[in-house]
Amino acid sequence: MSEANNNSNNNNEQRHPLQDANIINALAEGISNTLHEMAQIQCKFDKPFVERNWKPVADGTGVMEMKSAKHRGFLHIHFPKDAIVKIIGNMLGETPKEFNNEILDGIGEITNIVYGAMKAKLNPMGYDFKMASPTAEFTKNLNQLERTNKQLVIPFQIQEWKCYIEVILI
Q: What's the pTM value of the predicted model, to 2 decimals?
């Protein structure tokens, strides 16, 4: 490992978790690999940012509680309707006719895989994220109370659609 990488890793231990490059990279790699392997879709990432009271522009959201000895929060993965219909269609080999609970189940499964990939990458480094079960919701139904805390937002694009990974610590 280069000296620059060593310094970067040491700095991550002192940074706020929403600015931790290890977490950002693990999540970006998790969604990219998952969508590539399961749906043959490529992701392009924009610069991550931290903001308070950010509201996603999306239709369906995967939700996973994130727990470790040091942190508690939520992982949200937000998709617009057309993007997730494309993803699920590629996964199943046929395009879903409507945006319904079956689509939400697919979003939950994607979120579960991404969280598992993140845990597999970070836990050997001492992060100790615990097991959790995914849920998925229509984005408009998300709990807005969580949004008073700072959020890490990792924007990414699949084809012409903007999607978002969001981490909220509570």
A: 0.87
